[in-house]
TrEMBL record:
Keywords: DNA-binding, Phosphoprotein, Transcription, Transcription regulation, Two-component regulatory system. One of its GO terms (cellular component) is cytosol. The modification 4-aspartylphosphate is found at D51. Residues 2-116 form the Response regulatory domain. This is Transcriptional regulator. GO terms for molecular function: phosphorelay response regulator activity; transcription cis-regulatory region binding. Pfam families: Response_reg (PF00072), Trans_reg_C (PF00486). It comes from Falsibacillus pallidus. One of its GO terms (biological process) is regulation of DNA-templated transcription. Signal peptide: none annotated. Residues 125-220 bind DNA.
């Protein structure tokens, strides 16, 4: 299961991430609503956990925009607002569930498990075909002609980023932010090295085009 957490309280967010990573394999964290929408709209997440009062764009607005954009994963809203009217507003904005702060982690885990069961149709295996590749986004596997291509988690994350944004140029800075985070030590050289490895594992075929001076693009056109 892949979870996106949008929470601007760094202390709380780091604790939530640490606890969630003990239970679920992939948890990513952003600190504002604009990043939450960009990440959730551009990548595959089973559950998006949104704080109501996010900077730049509120959790309510993020939820509305995601639903308008066709996001079909589960949305869990976190907030200190416990009034009935607030709960209704959150649910009307597209949230599937609502958890009032402060909360116990066992309750958060229970809500996540319930959302995963409730939205079974959203968590079914999602297959994407690109040229001669078949990518199973939920199982995080890649096959060519029935043969599995072994990718590391970061390599798969990079491929998924390209698949989700095919025919669009992605800058090296954007790749660093998505795969490692802005606070990491990753550089443009790190991105170049991983692209080289990914191309090699994809049998040397140039699925990923270098847009010199700009970034990279996964193109439907043959190169």
């Amino acid at each position: 299961m892949k979870i996106l957490l949008a929470e601007d309280d760094q202390r709380l967010a780091k604790l939530i991430v640490r606890m969630l990573q003990k239970e679920w394999q992939v948890v990513e964290w952003v600190e504002n609503g604009e990043d939450a929408f960009e990440y959730a709209a551009g990548m595959h997440y089973d559950i998006v956990i949104l704080d109501w009062m996010l900077p730049k764009m509120s959790g309510i607005e993020v939820s509305r925009k995601l639903r308008s954009a066709g996001f079909d994963g589960a949305v869990l809203m976190l907030t200190a607002r416990g009034d009935v009217d607030d709960r209704v507003e959150g649910l009307d904005a597209g949230a599937d569930d609502y958890l009032v702060k402060p909360f116990e982690f066992k309750e958060l885990f229970a809500r996540i498990r319930a959302l995963s069961r409730r939205g079974t149709q959203n968590f079914e295996q999602e297959a994407v075909r690109f040229k001669d590749l078949e990518i199973q986004l939920n199982q995080r596997t890649v096959h060519r002609n029935g043969q599995m291509i072994a990718l590391t988690p970061k390599e798969f994350q990079m491929l998924e980023l390209f698949i989700r944004n095919r025919n669009q140029v992605i800058s090296k800075d954007a790749i660093i932010e998505r795969l490692w985070g802005l606070d990491s030590d990753a550089t443009a050289n790190t991105v170049e090295a991983m692209v080289k490895l990914l191309r090699k594992k994809l049998n040397g075929k140039q699925y990923i085009q270098t847009m010199r001076g700009v970034g990279y693009m996964l193109s439907d056109e043959n190169v």
